[in-house]
Recover the amino acids of this structure.
């Protein structure tokens, strides 16, 4: 083939996962912060701020998971049994919060139950995403092209740490989203929350980054051996710049978009860091992109549909955000 189809597909899957994280991350963050709203009206506004877009955000999760199954079947066959429990719990969390979106408005008697479901589902989904990431980073044992580890290998101190890190990071995204989308007391409250959440996110990013190179010798060599470290050193420098923009935006009234965009950039930069550690592996430490890929004929066939599908998803996602741009007002809607 004139193109490295496995590499192209790895980029598509990585892009889908990244878009899912930065889009669904903020609406999971809104759910994590939901119980801390001071009034029922504030909770209504918080849910209304993500109601038009939350289900569209999860399209990217389906694209990433479905794409992995279609074009990297060996990776899918290894990852699923290794991470079966956190993935199932994540999906249950997403189901509970999805149902809460619909039923919360239709009952007064059970409203608190659905509020709790929205919060609990958001926390569980975010935490399990982080746990799955941590388990993948620390490596999955593969023997004879099959998962060879135990049922609880995914549950370690490192994976729990990454789980907590994702919860705090998503809460930061949720707080900065509310700063951008709301006004008055609620926006001020979320601006105050975003400061400690920002420091917490940076602290966990730093801690996980320090621990990651010790999970596998390949990671350590990638980050700390010359001349490669001269290039990888750029990543933490950009992270520092994004952090400065985050806290400056939070400190100055009127810069409502800057904190959210800066918080998103923290996730993008962290994702790039993970990619630097992983490449060329699809499932560390044993399966590379090319080991896990389907035959070129299958990759080419699937790519034809994806070339049409991904721009369409990007277009309707952009259109939805454009239509519902601006601040949310509990009386007037968007303005």
């Amino acid at each position: 083939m004139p193109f490295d189809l496995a590499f192209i597909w790895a980029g598509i899957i990585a892009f889908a996962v990244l878009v899912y994280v930065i889009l669904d991350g903020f609406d999971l963050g809104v759910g994590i912060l939901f119980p801390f709203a001071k009034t029922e009206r504030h909770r209504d506004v918080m849910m209304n701020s993500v109601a038009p877009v939350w289900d569209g955000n999860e399209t990217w999760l389906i694209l990433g998971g479905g794409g992995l199954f279609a074009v990297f079947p060996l990776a899918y066959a290894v990852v699923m049994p290794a991470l079966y429990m956190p993935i199932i719990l994540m999906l249950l969390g997403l189901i509970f919060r999805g149902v809460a979106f619909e039923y919360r408005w239709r009952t007064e008697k059970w409203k608190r139950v659905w509020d709790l479901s929205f919060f609990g589902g958001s926390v569980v989904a975010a935490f399990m995403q982080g746990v799955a990431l941590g388990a993948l980073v620390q490596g999955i044992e593969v023997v004879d092209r099959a998962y060879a580890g135990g049922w609880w290998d995914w549950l370690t101190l490192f994976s729990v740490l990454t789980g907590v890190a994702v919860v705090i990071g998503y809460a930061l995204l949720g707080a900065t989203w509310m700063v951008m989308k709301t006004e008055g007391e609620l926006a001020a409250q979320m601006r105050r929350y975003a400061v400690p959440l920002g420091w917490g996110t940076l602290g966990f990013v730093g801690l996980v980054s320090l621990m990651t190179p010790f999970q596998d010798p390949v990671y350590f060599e990638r980050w700390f051996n010359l001349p490669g470290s001269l290039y990888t050193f750029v990543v933490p420098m950009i992270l520092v710049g994004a952090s400065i923009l985050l806290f400056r935006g939070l400190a100055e009234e009127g810069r409502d978009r800057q904190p959210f965009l800066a918080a998103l950039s923290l996730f993008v930069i962290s994702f790039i860091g993970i990619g630097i550690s992983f490449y060329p592996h699809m499932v560390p430490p044993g399966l590379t992109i090319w080991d896990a890929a389907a035959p070129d004929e299958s990759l080419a066939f699937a790519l034809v549909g994806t070339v049409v599908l991904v721009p369409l998803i990007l277009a309707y996602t952009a259109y939805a955000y454009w239509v519902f741009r601006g601040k949310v007002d509990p009386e007037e809607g968007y303005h």
Remarks:
- The chain has one domain: 11-324.
- The chain is about 75% helix and 5% strand.
- The mean pLDDT is 87.
- The CA atoms of residues 237 and 243 lie 10 Å apart.
